[in-house]
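COMPLEX REQUEST
Ligand: 2-acetamido-2-deoxy-beta-D-glucopyranose
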Amino acid sequence: MTMAYFLFQAKTLIFIALFVLIYLYLGTQSHTEGTAAHVFARWKRKADFLLVPEINCKVDTPFLVILVTSTYDQLDARMAIRETWGKERLIQYRKVVTFFLLGTTTNNTHQTLLAKENKQYGDLIQKNFLDTYRNLTLKTLMGIEWAHQFCSSSSFVMKTDTDMFVNIFYLVELLLKRKSKTSLFTGFIKLHEKPLRGASSKWYISEAEYPDKLFPPFCSGTGYVFSTDLAHKIYNVSLSVPKISLEDVYIGLCLSELNIIPEPLSTKRIFFSEKVTFSVCGFRNIVTSHRIKPYELLLYWKELENSADLECKSGSDDLA
Ligand SMILES: *[C@@H]1O[C@H](CO)[C@@H](O)[C@H](O)[C@H]1NC(C)=O
Ligand SMILES: *[C@@H]1O[C@H](CO)[C@@H](O)[C@H](O)[C@H]1NC(C)=O
Ligand SMILES: *[C@@H]1O[C@H](CO)[C@@H](O)[C@H](O)[C@H]1NC(C)=O
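STATUS: Structure written out below.
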């Protein structure tokens, strides 16, 4: 046996050993789906995303995943949410987590800073599309795709915005009261809404984009909640429903394709798409309020925490 031949054999052996080790390592990373094909498919799905949050839903399964549409420049709002309703916590032993949905900008520095932010907080979800208001539908669908691909073991998903107050405690309580954990789509339900044709409106939609005179039933994009089984269904049907720029109406179109009708979660009104005047007893009995600035959110949250002992007369602070 020559020296060269021996070295060749040794190299081959090392190569094979390395391959086996990598294969075994990838196997431990993917838990139940250990085959090479599964590992590759999972890697490829992940590679479609620029940023993903630091969570393994199969091991550390959340009850509720809150997805918040956000933009690069809203760092103060993200920070306020991380310190208040978006903080990872257990509510009645159920885990609630909050992640932010982002697109891309044309400034590379922004991307570097977002990657850094995700390294620190591990709560960003991002794909490669231009982050504009008219691309909001893509942003929401990205969140639903993420939930379906990487967190299908969770029970519920909420989609909301950065300028919202979310009473996660009351929401979890109401979701737990519901016996079934499937086929739920809820929020501030809008029936018989008409498309706005005035070109100056923020919600303008042309007849070319949406010719019908009425929208299907949908829930206000300020905050809607659905059982995670619907993430897969909505994602799948969205591949064949032409995109329109109104994100909440678009999800309504997907639901009507699926014959799913939004339903109320409570007999009282709990989802508000407008700003509700703050009071401790009022806010204990709602799930969402809109147009909340980061400093207001921090203030309200502190007030709610400080008045944990306050008893509210039942019924006296109903807002609906
Ligand atoms: C890119 O973003 C950084 C950070 O916000 C800013 O300082 C810089 O001026 C931006 N560059 C351009 C070309 O807009
Ligand atoms: C949406 O994102 C795509 C992909 O980056 C981009 O080409 C397109 O211009 C964006 N659309 C709008 C309306 O901003
Ligand atoms: C996905 O959508 C296609 C067409 O929209 C439909 O035929 C198929 O049954 C759907 N699959 C699932 C699992 O929902």
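REMARKS: The chain is about 40% helix and 20% strand. The domain at 47-266 is CATH 3.90.550 (Spore Coat Polysaccharide Biosynthesis Protein SpsA; Chain A).
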